[in-house]
């Protein structure tokens, strides 16, 4: 390779390294800013703001889903093992929504501690919950319960 | 180190002759693989346990997303070659790959949105994977716009190469976004190494479909590049002879 090309290659690599480092730094800074959801425990403890849109995540409690007969209104309880929060949602739930499924709901808390959700999202993969939900479940010891339940249902 | 194989690419004539020989094979491979992969995946593969038939869009979504990223990587490599070695063909490849990549990126975003509504419950969420993929689409638009906006061919080549190179930083971000951050998008099912988290009768058609998309991409890229080479070298005698040969039947 002749010296001119070598020099140009070095400049190109320097551009690539420079932008790479800049972007990596920016993303590391953003990492601190990730909008973590509130667990039912945190909501029960009053840590979640009352008038802001928040995300709540957890497992849909078995046997807690109550559907209205004449509308799309549905009430269900999301639990992390330690505490529970009731979520009220009007709309079409994702196909993957079912009891025991990890979900994330976006909405506002009303005065009675019910989350009026305008969006309920389910994770894609059956065995995979949103990482945030998994983390919170591990902290509250619910994960083991969930895993046990899964193994139980396979047998 | 022997650079002969590399320097050959500096000759548009050599490229035109070689690509003419590869093109039929690639075209046939693309048609066969796409037909088999898509028919198998869309009609014969078993439905998924929970998503039932809606998961079948994976046979479009995943190959398109793969190609959108591979295409950008190819453009970045072409950008380096064009900046360092000033090879004209690299610039041709870069400019001609951009629209194909943009379409594939668009297809993966749209198919993902259609898939997201029934499974997640939303067409769009600003999670790391989806957002970085959208940025990739805008990078493609940027390269296309830059290439068309600058009339001086050398300046356009340089500007596009730098943008392709800088934008390549986005590719590892897309790839690892599902691992670095909490996203709604699930992590990769389809990895080269490690065990597949899919049964073989779902996984094989996906592999065939991905290979088919790669062959399709290569075919379309070579066709576009050949046309662009003829256009740029229109004053060369071999191009005049070739054009006369191609249009001979119509006279």
Automatic annotation (TrEMBL), chain A:
GO terms for cellular component: plasma membrane. The keyword Membrane applies. Keywords: Cell inner membrane, Cell membrane, Cytochrome c-type biogenesis, Heme, Iron, Membrane, Metal-binding, Signal-anchor, Transmembrane, Transmembrane helix. Residues 30-155 are extracellular. It comes from the Bacteria. It is a single-pass type II membrane protein. Residues 1-8 are cytoplasmic. GO terms for biological process: cytochrome complex assembly; protein-heme linkage. The keyword Membrane applies. Heme chaperone required for the biogenesis of c-type cytochromes. Transiently binds heme delivered by CcmC and transfers the heme to apo-cytochromes in a process facilitated by CcmF and CcmH. Belongs to the CcmE/CycJ family. This is Cytochrome c-type biogenesis protein CcmE. It comes from Pseudomonas mangrovi.
From TrEMBL, chain B:
GO terms for molecular function: heme binding; heme transmembrane transporter activity. InterPro entries: Cyt_c_assembly, Cyt_c_biogenesis_CcmC, Cyt_c_biogenesis_CcsA/CcmC. GO terms for biological process: cytochrome complex assembly. It is a multi-pass membrane protein. Its main location: membrane. One of its GO terms (cellular component) is plasma membrane. It holds the Pfam family Cytochrom_C_asm. Residues 20-185 form the Cytochrome c assembly protein domain. The chain crosses the membrane at residues 22-45, 57-85, 97-116, 128-147, 159-178, 202-223. It is found in: Cell inner membrane; Membrane. Keywords: Cell inner membrane, Cell membrane, Cytochrome c-type biogenesis, Membrane, Transmembrane, Transmembrane helix, Transport. Belongs to the CcmC/CycZ/HelC family. Required for the export of heme to the periplasm for the biogenesis of c-type cytochromes. This is Heme exporter protein C. It comes from Pseudomonas mangrovi.
């Amino acid at each position: 390779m002749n010296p001119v090309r070598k020099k140009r290659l070095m400049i190109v690599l320097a551009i690539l390294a420079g932008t790479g480092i800049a972007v990596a730094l920016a993303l590391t800074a953003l990492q601190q800013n990730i909008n973590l959801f509130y667990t039912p425990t945190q909501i029960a403890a009053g840590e979640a703001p009352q008038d802001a849109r928040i995300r709540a995540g957890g497992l849909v409690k078995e046997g807690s889903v109550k559907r209205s007969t004449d509308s799309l209104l549905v009430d269900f309880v999301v639990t992390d093992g330690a505490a529970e929060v009731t979520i009220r949602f009007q709309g079409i739930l994702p196909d993957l929504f079912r009891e025991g499924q990890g979900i994330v709901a976006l909405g506002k808390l009303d005065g009675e501690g019910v989350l009026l959700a305008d969006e309920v999202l389910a994770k894609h993969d059956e065995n995979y919950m949103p990482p945030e939900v998994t983390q919170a479940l591990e902290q509250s010891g619910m994960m083991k319960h969930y895993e046990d339940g899964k193994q139980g249902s396979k047998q | 180190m022997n650079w002969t194989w590399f320097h050959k690419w500096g000759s548009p004539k050599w490229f035109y002759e070689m690509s003419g020989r590869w093109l039929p094979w690639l075209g046939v491979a693309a048609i066969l693989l796409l037909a088999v992969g898509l028919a198998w995946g869309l009609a014969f593969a078993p439905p998924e346990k929970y998503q039932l038939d809606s998961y079948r869009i994976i046979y479009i979504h995943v190959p398109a997303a793969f190609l959108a990223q591979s295409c950008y990587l190819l453009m970045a490599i072409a950008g380096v070659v064009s900046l360092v070695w000033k090879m004209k063909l690299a610039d041709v490849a870069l400019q001609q790959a951009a629209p194909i990549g943009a379409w594939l990126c668009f297809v993966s975003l749209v198919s993902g949105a259609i898939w997201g509504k029934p499974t997640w419950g939303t067409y769009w969420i600003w999670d790391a994977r989806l957002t970085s993929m959208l940025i990739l689409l805008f990078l493609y638009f940027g390269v296309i716009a830059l290439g068309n906006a600058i009339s001086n061919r050398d300046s356009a080549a340089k500007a596009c190469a730098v943008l392709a190179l800088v934008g390549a930083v986005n590719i590892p971000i897309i790839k690892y976004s599902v691992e670095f951050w909490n996203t709604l998008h699930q992590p990769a099912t389809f990895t080269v190494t490690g065990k597949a988290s899919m049964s073989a009768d779902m996984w094989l058609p996906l592999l065939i479909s991905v290979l088919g998309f790669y062959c399709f991409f290569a075919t379309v890229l070579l066709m576009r590049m050949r046309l662009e080479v003829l256009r740029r070298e229109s004053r060369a005698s071999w191009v005049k002879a070739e054009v006369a040969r191609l249009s001979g039947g119509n006279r």
